[in-house]
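Ticket #4471: structure output looks truncated?

Reporter: J.K.
Steps to reproduce: submitted the chain below (622 residues) through the standard prediction queue, then opened the result file.
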Amino acid sequence: MSQGNIPARNTAPTPPPIRPAGVGGGHHRGGPVVKPKNFKATLKRLWQYFGNERKMLALIFVFILMDSVLMLLAPYLIGKAVDAMTIKAGGVDFSLLEVLIIVLTCAYVGDAILTFSQGWLMAGVAQRVVKRLRAALFQKLQKLPVSFFDSRTHGELMSRLSNDVDNVSNTISQSTTQLMSGLMVIIGSLIMMLILSPLLTVASLLTVPLVFLLTRTIAKRTSVLFKNQQIQLGKLNGHIEETISGIEVVKAFNHEEKVIEEFDDVNEKLRAVGFLKAQIWSGFLMPIMNVINNLGFAIVAVIGGILAVKSLITIGAIASFITYSRQFVRPLNDLANIFNVLQSGVAGAERVFEVMDEQEETEDLPMAVPLEHPKGHVVFENVSFGYRPDVLILKNVSFEAQIGSSTALVGPTGAGKTTIVNLLTRFYDVTSGRILLDGRDIREYTRDSLRKCFGFVLQDTYLFSGTIKENIKYGKPDATDEEVEQAAKMANADAFIKRLPNQYETVLSENGGNLSQGQRQLLAIARVILAKPSLLILDEATSSIDTRTELHIQAAMLSLMENRTSFIIAHRLNTIRDADTIMVIDHGEIIEKGSHDELLQAQGRYHQMFDNQFKNIEGALD
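Returned output as attached by the reporter:
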């Protein structure tokens, strides 16, 4: 579809509640855990995106296994080294100690190499998986119907494409290896502890219930506080985004002090809830955890000392056991947080999959054919449409537009004018009735070929990041520079473009922010002129242009509309005087139809609208 912009909708379904910014984003230690609704199903579905990475995961698992063996070997070697220094009365077995030190050094060096290797490989796996996931999500967005975007905020969709996907990436690259390594070390350390001394093992496990009780108690208190923190953070982000986007309005109404006061208020609430209450409570966890762990080590040391005095265990074995107990407790402390991060990452994947599961635009009918060489004969037959079945926006609309004719749609805002052209281009499908193009139901054409024959010039222009030339060529990428310049001349844009330092190579900022509204509109018109569509839709195309420029644009439009079926949506009735047919739309129905002169003679709604707009001007002329 050749377009100067994406068409706006004058009516939209009720959007879902807006989620606070930050929710579903990156997880941090002690932060709120967004739990997935179906952990196993989401994890299984995410696994499908690993594809060929599964072989790499197997290699990483081998590295983790080797690394865990080295981590379990080190404490055993330390114990033997201690015993080597007491193996003889008053002497040291230096030969054995030398061998143990060399082996221990190799174990630590091997541990460092394996840890680096598995982290590096896992980061690559994560980035490749997330690349596929992000590409699949972006492709899905291109296939979703306009109604999907009507019911969701852009920020919420951006959050899923960026924050949630990044959350998945962090989970895969960090938590996965930590979880596997932690489980192996816990199991291995427990086995070695049982081998060294079952009695000391039982003593060291006495503090484990205290660890879980403490974690659960503090987590229960902080979960509510961190949730409130995210809500306040969302309000703060929303306020900042809204203020920056509307900075011109803020300055125009001298509301700088007011927005600063509002920012300070929200910022203080965030500080009070998040960085005071929540952080203090979460800060209790590790110090108390260390006290409990040290208490456990003290119990092991006391009991171990008694056993050593009775010659039931060696000093080296006690040293090994204490190291194993540390290796056993440390992953236990981390596993709860790792599992929370894993849950948060899976929840992010679930939010991505929610979009992936949305219903795409209905597929073309099996018998659908490409629309070739469209002539432009349009017929609406008893067309009704509603975003909800029980609330109709259009009601039994019927009209015919002859080949090469111009049809103007006028009426109050929300009457259904834009909905008519949205149905014609199949941004939506009719609820009942049918629309014919060249004698065939538009649903019998492939959607792509149907939209390619339309050109849009709308009131709200949209320009993409890039040069002016690239924006004009958007509707016809293979156009030559001469064709681009000719289109710009027809749209009366060439004059201001030539005054720019880089002319057609001028790089535009976001949505052409470095151009005036009128200049952006001229580029949108040039874009459509270049594409040379078979049918035109003009929605207040000259509303943002000064009167002098408007005269030139209207002349260009008349040339462009020649021999093309055109639909013109307008509130300024002077722009549609020459339309072949003018339809007055109100509450989704055509209440009047005819030429400009015929409608004036009818003394109906159109006459009233025309009189209201021009009576002062006509009085002045008289």
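Triage note (M.O.): checked the attachment and the full token line is present. The first strand starts at residue 2 and ends at 3.
Status: closed, working as intended.
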